[in-house]
Amino acid sequence: MKFNYHLKFIVVCVIFLFIIMPMLLNNREEKIKKSILQPKKKETEVYVDIIEEDKRSKEKSKLNSPASTKNDNINGILPPILANYRNYVGFKKYSYFLSKAGCKFFIIGNNSNYLYEINFNSNSLIKENIKNLNTNNFSSKSRIITDEPALYKFIDIAKKRYNLVNPQVVVLFPKSLEIKIFQCLKTKNLDMSKVISLSGYYKLNNNSLILLINEIIMKQKKQMTDINILILEL
């Protein structure tokens, strides 16, 4: 009996060493490989609401806008856009063109009453009460800029000087620019009421910034496309 016990113990140890242990090591190695090979997040812009507008101002804006139809919503007319600028433009030129087009870059945090405008010339932040911001000129949907090394210094300032918790960089687009994008998409015979989201990237063409939409997610399908939208020509 004692011999059988020792024999069983030896068999179990052999099985563990030569079968189970290699499996565990391979599994761990695969996880490490996946973590190394997994692509980093791409620096993109995505939508988030930070400007609240009352229903009366929305209805007035719809009626006064030349682009409004029964299914259009001029305040935040565009569905969410996921647009990459890093591959072909880079943040420096991206922010330069957008600033020239009337966009503003802000940092937001735990204090919902204030925005902190980024001044790229002086590398500083300007504290601004959101009530003093002329929200009628901007889209109600801002764009969040994520994982951008060029913005880390401004986020650091926001944390240290203004004690912001989890600060994020957002871009406010002028309504006029959003309407321009919307009208360009409508010329492509898209039923915008059925569009859930858009994907694409920014590119440069001589002295122009172009937004290229290459994917449209609709309620019933996904559609690949190639729509070039002129954001600004210098």
Largest sheet: 10 strands, mixed
Count of helical regions: 5
How many β-strand runs?
A: 10
Helix-and-strand structural type: alpha+beta
Percent of residues in helices comes to: 25-40%
**What would the average pLDDT be, to the nearest integer?**
76
Sheet with the most strands: spatial strand order: 5-4-3-7-6-1-2-8-9-10
Low-confidence stretches: 28-43, 46-75
Distance between the termini: 91 Å
The proportion of residues in beta strands is: 25-35%
Explain what you see:
Helix content is 34%, strand content 30%. It has helices at 2-37, 55-64, 91-100, 152-162, 175-186, and strands spanning 44-49, 81-84, 104-108, 114-119, 124-129, 141-145, 168-172, 195-205, 208-218, 222-233. The chain is built from five helices and ten strands, in the order H-E-H-E-H-E-E-E-E-H-E-H-E-E-E. The N and C termini lie far apart (91 Å). A hairpin with a 5-residue loop joins strand 3 and strand 4. It is of the alpha+beta class and 234 residues long. A ten-stranded mixed sheet has the order 5-4-3-7-6-1-2-8-9-10.
Walk me through the topology.
Blueprint: H1 2-37, E1 44-49, H2 55-64, E2 81-84, H3 91-100, E3 104-108, E4 114-119, E5 124-129, E6 141-145, H4 152-162, E7 168-172, H5 175-186, E8 195-205, E9 208-218, E10 222-233
Parallel strand pairs: 2-8
Antiparallel strand pairs: 1-2, 1-6, 3-4, 3-7, 4-5, 6-7, 8-9, 9-10
